Amino acid sequence: MKKKNLAFNKSEYYKLVLILSIFYTVWKIIKHLNFIWLYKNNIPTFGEVQNPADYLDAIIIDWFVVILFMSVVAYAMGKWSGTNRITLIKLLPLHLLLSFLLNFFIFPLQFLSYRLQDKIHFKEGYFRVLLDRVIKYMDLNFLTYFSMLGIILLFYYFKNKRDEESIKITLEAQLMEAKLSALNSQLQPHFIFNTLNSISTLIDENQEKAQNMIAYLGAMLRNTFDKKKSLVVNLEIELQNLNNYIQILKIRFDEDLEVNFIVEENIGKIKVPNMFLQPVVENSIKHGYGFHRKNLSIQICIAQKGNYLSSTVINNGIPLDVKGIIKKGFNGNGLRILRERFQAQYGNDYLFALKNLDNDKGVVTQIDFPIL
Asked: What's the predicted TM-score (pTM) here?
């Protein structure tokens, strides 16, 4: 599995080719006007072409070859951009070679054009003449290549910045939707009523439990309403927030609900998507209880596997119609939004599996994703 890549956009590529074409067209127009001025004022041009007609032919051929050549470079850079952490320094030898090879594309076509028009005849060997021209104009084509390469790099740099910002905005919107979904599922009237009713009952029976329940509810509400909450948090913070929710339910359901955490040591500082575990636990509780399943046990296992964090939530509740879920999709807001968040953040580089245990002994949900 690979990290999420920024997609190659053809329309953006065509826009880049247009920018390169405009840039080089302006360059060639300025160059041609410079030649006309020198020609009319009988100033030596220090070049082989001595009249405007031949010089215009050379410019046109040069323009087509350079734009075609740099369009291929732009395409390759676009494919690499966002997919490989290859720096310009590492690719510098390749770009130096390409700037040198650019000459071997320009001059053969210019020579062919002049030869077909019977304007030149080689007294020396063809390759020797070609090599002379390549060396003579190496500095100019070096400047041409790296000027246009700079445009390409700047274009993809700002494009990737826009794409990353767009992904960030999408994730922030989905995080807010997740919080609203949490409010909708947790803070609906019967949840508030049941929680407050439990607190009211416990005040007379067990004041310590009542105070604990109030504390857990307050912490859960603060986390849910926190507008400054990041898209990612430390795993230990995610587990602490999840525990506030679980403790409220454990007090309410008393001995009917058991939740156990099995978390690998020394992974608490790993960054994880904010509020990614709560929808899974909610789903386990919501669908786990039934007429013949009064006691629900949930086990949450989290461990690092290479460069990925593996989270498994197992419950002994009522089996799900997994085939129906796969066919129709995750209809529940919590799991649906969670999958969309993972898709936006990791592309296809994550695992989200939901299946029944053997002999209908419960349901397991597994989520694996790259460590941020």
From this structure: 0.53
